[in-house]
Amino acid sequence: MPLPFLTADGVFDAHEDEALPHADPERWRRPYRPGPWRVAGAAVLLLVSAFMLLATVIITFAGTTAGAAVAAGASLAVLGSALRLLRTGVWVSPTGLRRVGFFTTRSIAWSEIDGVRKVQQPVRWLGLPRTVQGQALTVAGRDGAELPVLLTDHSADFLARGEAFDRAAGQVEAWAQEYRAVPA
Fold first, then answer.
1. Model confidence pLDDT, tens digit, residues 54-72
2. Rounded to the nearest 5°, which phi and psi values hold at 96?
3. Fewer CB within 10 Å of terminal CB in the chain, N or C?
């Protein structure tokens, strides 16, 4: 007896670019799924955080409250880092474009954007200082200023997933074309 409500089979039946009937178009949304490298890094951090919370419980039962407080604070910091790592990326909405980094978030209204395009340039490999030749999705501001790179094909979301990068870049470009034409 199949139990479809217990499986995720129905999730993949819909096309990725179609909005769900309950999806609010005014909300910020990521036009792509987090990549395997980003999810694996967050999973490792969550596992470390679980062990740290277990150590906190053991320290608490051992009777040192100060040590338990330090261990709890450290485990919550690791847990917050894992959640922030999953949150990083590019988000779009009818109001603008948002680039969420690990420490900073920058929002740009569509009216301030002159164009979004893919370019071939040296990009950082998995966010590390080492650069390799790859593709990047860049944004040009109205005043001619080049804003930070939005997406790269060697990031934690798109490493070894070229077609996913092309699809995500195409969706961000489509959002830019659609909402830059609409007066704010």
1. 999 999 998 788 999 999 9
2. 170, -160
3. N
